[in-house]
Amino acid sequence: MDLVLLCVFLPLVTVAWGQYGDYYYGPYNYGDNDEWVNVYRQGFNFQCPHGQVIVAVRSVFNKKEGSDRLWNYACMPAAQSLGEPTECWWEEINRAGTEWYQTCSNNGLVAGFQSQYFPSVLD
Asked: Which family does the entry's similarity section mention (predicted)?
């Protein structure tokens, strides 16, 4: 019985182990050419092209660079079922040194970000 189980499960384990490597994503090596929208210790203003919305946000933190972050965004066209954008507004949603959380009202979509760097609070 044990030999039968071994003959059945060994090929399954071999296939599963071989596929395991296909799903491993190692740490990303962030370089200087990753098209960040800002540089350390500087503000920025990023906006997707008309009709597009932000679909991904990437950020890295660096304590040596003034406890600041680099930011990168990806945009894609908004779904046609949402229709054309009819209005746009900018809103201040947090203060330096605080976390932020925002829920879009009226089925709103995010199409841009603006940030300022304040050296006095390293944020």
From this structure: Belongs to the dermatopontin family.
